[in-house]
Design brief:
Chain lengths: ~290, ~350
């Protein structure tokens, strides 16, 4: 009895440092954001007071919130499938018998190593009107200058391109590892039956990559709502919030306008959104996934 | 298709070679498999038997030579157009598909109609007694059941040729014995030509119509199991077939003819013995403790196996194993007399390893 008791204490002591950090910087802020979302923003001599669902009513009537949420959903809907498809294509390519594939693997992975701020700055140059890389290439074919980041119709899509370019190489590594775990005689068995490359991919490779896809999907969804570095560097959400994402909007509300209560409300919405997506992925998709 | 020729030889290899850089995995193999026969490719690991099978399947490209299946030159054809099915050593079952989908995979790829598919699946499931497993995933099956499913996937294709790459090596001894009989019966019933790779001589001896013993990528002997046992073409074959394998006793010149090294009594009259090796199977040897006939020897050790006892004896500088019926545990050092049955002696050239005729 004595030893079991001390084993418990020992275990808790080992967990303590990590637990303290998690509680202090993750769980406590989550709870306080939830509490703050029912309060008013304290101003000078006026302390915060309970206002019930008022902040949520403001949110429902806030056109910028809906615009930013729409942007973010659009951003996720385009970047996630695009970066997953690109990652699988690259992984299949560098998994095959290919000269210089070591170099190619490294090249595909390089964007992942670079900090987003640096990546955003590189792409800023690509998107520069007139003398940026894209416009220079367009110029060769007689295209005029386009203000890619400065017009509402293209700004968000430019951010998507940067994100896909940065994320695909990272996801490729997971797919490459998964591909190398697939028994090569499965492919030989399929080749004896004369299965086409598409059939092999659809009936063997893709289902066997499903656990990886699920993992990548969760990371990609979180990434789509978490990454704002490129927004800060490239467009600052503009023009007219055309390229603003939810987290960037929260940052603006909370730390530029100092409306901390409303920022808390937005944060709660973001957390609920992410939780809902995670639940869907872990329940519905998990059942349809084969784990070896 | 020329009928006469095709019905005789289902598979014909001419000078087939596979080289990787300077390594000659398979080197100039000639081989003919009759229609409906079971040919075993036998040999120690690294002898090139699996590579040869993969060359026949088309999973590897030949460096040289030609492969004909059913009278058609398939040397340059992809695996799918060689009219064959294959069972892999690790079964290669698709882990995410249930047994039904695993078996039907090939038929679906080949766009066989649903009615035909169901009829064939039913027959295969009955044949292999796996009807109750159809909805399970491979991970939920035992090794023996997985083996059956792999067989089912090969059989349902109804191809004239079936290739097997050490299909029983992952099963336990009892199951292996059952499956050996079952595969052989199945092969006869379906009338397919089967090429079967194994390193287990028991499988080769008990299943094959024809055994091709390989060594270092070359054919050491190509014969029936009985011929392989009764007339091994080389010392290597003699040492590979039989448990325990044939005794190989180095000979020397003696005063009255060839004798076993270090033992003066002549074993072959009127002949020199240097450079020759005498081969006698342990089961052909006779051991006597009391009588005065035969070569003098002393017991080194003896092992009891139930039905018989294997006694190791020292004769001159050589050691011979003798299979004695029943329990004949003799203490080491016991003096014994050794002999062998009429016509049981084989002679080999020590240098080339090739068989010599016994006078």
């Amino acid at each position: 009895m004595q030893t079991r008791y001390s084993a418990h204490i020992y275990g808790w002591l080992l967990l303590l440092p990590a637990a303290v950090l998690l509680v202090a910087f993750t769980h406590a802020p989550m709870v306080s954001a939830f509490v703050d979302s029912f309060m008013s923003t304290p101003k000078g001599a006026r302390p915060a007071r309970f206002v019930g669902l008022m902040q949520y009513e403001t949110l429902i009537e806030d056109p910028i919130f809906w615009r930013v949420l729409g942007n973010n959903i659009l951003f996720a809907v385009w970047t996630i499938p695009a970066s997953i498809a690109l990652a699988i294509a690259m992984a299949l390519l560098v998994n095959g018998k290919l000269k210089g594939r070591g170099f190619l693997r490294m090249a595909y992975f390089t964007p992942t190593v670079l900090p987003m701020i640096a990546v955003a700055n590189i792409w800023m140059f690509f998107f520069t009107p007139d003398y940026g890389l894209i416009d220079q290439i367009r110029g060769l074919f007689g295209g005029g200058p386009v203000n890619w980041l400065g017009q509402q119709s293209t700004a968000l899509y430019c951010l998507m391109v940067v994100t896909v370019w940065k994320e695909a190489g990272f996801f490729m590594i997971f797919y490459l590892a998964a591909l190398q775990g697939i028994n090569p005689s499965l492919y030989e068995a399929a080749s004896l039956e004369g299965a086409s490359r598409w059939t092999v991919f659809r009936r063997i490779t893709w289902p066997l990559l499903m656990p990886t896809t699920l993992f990548v999907l969760i990371n990609a969804v979180i990434g789509a709502f978490r990454l704002v570095d490129h927004v800060v560097v490239m467009t600052k959400g503009g023009p007219d919030n055309a390229s603003s994402l939810l987290l960037f909007y929260i940052y603006e509300i909370g730390f530029k306008y100092w409306d901390t209560a409303y920022a808390s409300t937005l944060t709660v919405v973001l957390l609920v959104l992410l939780a809902a997506v995670a639940v869907f992925q872990f329940t519905y998709l998990d059942k349809r996934t084969h784990y070896q | 298709m020329r009928l006469g020729e095709a019905s005789l030889s289902a598979i014909e290899l001419r000078g087939v070679a596979k080289h990787w850089g300077t390594t000659r995995a398979v080197d100039g193999i000639n081989l003919t498999a009759r229609q409906g026969s079971l040919v075993v490719l036998l040999g120690p690991s690294g002898c090139g038997k699996s590579t040869l099978l993969r060359l026949i399947a088309g999973l590897e490209e030949v460096t040289d030579g030609s492969i004909r299946i059913g009278g058609e030159d398939v040397t340059k054809l992809p695996p799918a157009r060689r009219h064959l099915a294959m069972v892999f050593q690790n079964y290669a079952l698709f882990p995410h598909l249930d047994v039904r989908e695993n078996i039907l995979f090939g038929l679906k790829v080949r766009k066989v109609g649903a009615a035909d598919r169901d009829r064939r699946l039913k027959r295969v499931a009955e044949l292999l007694a796996i009807g109750h497993l159809l909805d399970r995933k491979p991970g939920q099956l035992s090794g023996g059941q997985q083996q059956r499913v792999a067989l089912g996937r090969a059989i349902i294709a109804e191809q004239p040729v079936c290739l097997m790459d050490e299909p029983l090596s992952n099963l336990d001894a009892q199951l292996r014995q059952d499956m050996r009989r079952e595969i052989r019966a199945l092969q006869r019933e379906l009338g397919v030509t089967m090429i079967y790779v194994t390193h287990d001589q028991t499988e080769a001896m008990s299943m094959a119509d024809q055994v091709v013993l390989l060594r270092d990528g070359r054919v050491e002997q190509d014969a029936t199991p009985a011929e392989l046992y009764a007339r091994p073409a080389t010392l290597f074959v003699a040492s590979f077939i039989g448990t325990p394998p044939m005794n190989r006793l180095a000979l020397a010149d003696g005063p009255h003819g060839a004798c076993i090294k270090g033992a003066p009594e002549a074993v072959i009259g009127d002949s020199g013995g240097t450079g020759l090796v005498l081969g006698v199977r342990p089961e052909d040897m006779v051991l006597a403790v009391d009588s005065g006939d035969g070569l003098a020897g002393t017991v080194d050790s003896s092992e009891y196996f139930g039905a018989d006892t294997i006694v190791a004896c020292r004769v001159g500088t050589e050691t011979a194993l003798i299979r004695c019926p029943g329990n004949r545990l003799l203490p080491p050092g016991t003096p014994v007399r050794l002999g062998w049955n009429e016509g049981a002696a084989h002679l080999f050239d020590a240098g080339t390893g090739r068989r010599r005729s016994v006078d």
